[in-house]
Here is the input.
Amino acid sequence: MTHLLVLPILIPLGTAIVLLLLRANPMGRRIVIGISGLSILVADIVLLTSIYQKGIHSYQVGGWSAPFGIVMVGDLLSGIMLVLASVISLSALSYSFGYLKKEAQQALFHPLFFFMWAGTNGAFLTGDIFNLFVMFEVMLMSIYALLVMLGEKKQIEAGFKLISMGLFTSALFLAAAGGIYAFAGTLNMADLALKIKPHVDHPLVSAIAMMFIGVFGLKAAMMPFHFWLPDVHSAAPTPISAMLSGILIKVGVYAIIRVFCLIFVDLQGYFQGFILTMACITMFVGALGAVAQTDIKRLLAYSSVSQIGYILMGVGFFTVGGMSAALFYIISHGVIKSSLFLAAGILKKMRGSTEMSDHGDMINTSPAFTTIFFIGVISLGGIPPSGGFFMKFQLIKAGLDGAFYIPVIVAFMVSLMTLFYLFRSWQKICLSGPPQGNPLARPSVKLLIPVGILAMLCLVLGLAASPVSGLTQAAAEQLFSPELYIRAVMGAM
Amino acid sequence: MTSLIFKSITKTVSPILMIFSLYLLLRGHQMPGGGFIAGLMTSAGLVLIYLAYGCDFFDWHKRSRFFYYLFSGGLALSFLTGLAGLFIGGTFLKSGVAHVEMPFIHESWEFASAGIFDIGVYLVVCGVCVSLMTLLGEEE
Here is the structure.
């Protein structure tokens, strides 16, 4: 049995503990963070290639066999999400050294960050509904603390919103997990898939499926539940905003994909209309909110809501092409949005504000920043040769292939709005005349490097779109043959 | 909160709480009990002492660093138990069992390595509870 599968959880967990113990030693902490951050990335990439070559991996924690013990399962979807998480986390981590000035802040920040990372990776790897709940909690607990850590008034307010939302979601999740356990007598996802299949017409099953949509929709900020996101994502310390928008809202989408491509496979058609409608409304409402914002971080947060709508639309097609496009969208949106958030953090560092009217003339102050921001803008706007073009192109192509014309029309309209609000913000921050007040200092290179790397990745995703979309295509095909997953977990049956 | 009644009750109740919590900790592997509940019970005893006798009795605030390392160490202990399972037993969190002949009472006591994991959890819960209490009780 290979232990590769648990490494993405064990390394961050161990690192967090070591960092707690190294409170008094800043230099030692940096070395530990560097080494283990890179080793998580390497472990994730090795895991992804191993899954790609050998098929789905499963691992029984504690040696208890499948339907009874705790299983970890890695398929291509988990592998892709893990690699994405580690790329974004590494950039956010290296950015945090320049962003958080005080040693005491870093002493608290980094252990919590690694706990959050462990929770995220755990959510991607677990093969069990209850452990998904536990991993969500590990992730959320760390986020609560990270969000209010700097103690600004806005952050405390956002923290209150996030905690109320989180507690409500957890209660609902627990109720849904309890319901499905009462119905099927198991919590293992592969086992559930087998047990639910004959009873798919039972009204309780669709009720539970609806509850899961609610729970994961809340996490992913799907339309009626998007209210918490703009406050939380804009108030959080910038490296955390990048993590939240880049990867953590995708955990919700991941869970929707996992649940509907494994447990409730036969309910896909039943919920398709609902998911697509919600996706279209989410897209539109998010973009509408973004157009009205004057604060760059809030604008980006609303834009995240809108982009989640695009991803859910790809999921809602329930075709291989749609799923593949949604996965490509998750990857490129994660990279783009976190680079944009980190760029907004540079603005905050320079003038202590993220209001767009407080900034201007960045093209003369810092051409590097202007370029990076521009790459982010064209990527999210979907202009070639960036990764953003291919993410939208694939999604719309999948929609046309499946004859979903109305969602495609909405997606086109929202794309125009996206272009409008992004270019307006870029024009205001970079091209308009110099702002009132003190002359601007140059942004520090320490902060520009991680953002620049992410911006480069946006372009790489565009230039090397075909290997990436080959990978997402394989992942989508794997998702639509759930018997592979079940066989990997339950053994030959 | 420093009435004579409260102080006298604390004097009897908190030792009982702590001894009973150790009992829960040690039987937790097979029977109801375990690290989490035992840790909560011990910290309930500590909280009683804190409320009845105040900061001066134990110098809580000067020891906050000790409690910090208590919970970090507990976390490390639990994690290392899991890792030991990986290296010795074959999978993460694999538990081993040994039967130990107890001296004097001549009974076999089943010792599971999950017990060490529980002790780690116990330390985490105690450390976190007391740290929280001292943080909340701190003057600005």
The first helix of chain B runs from residue 4 to 27. The interface with chain A takes residues 68-69, 72-73, 75-76, 79, 82-83, 85-86, 89-95 of chain B (CB under 8 Å). The longest strand of chain B covers residues 97-101.
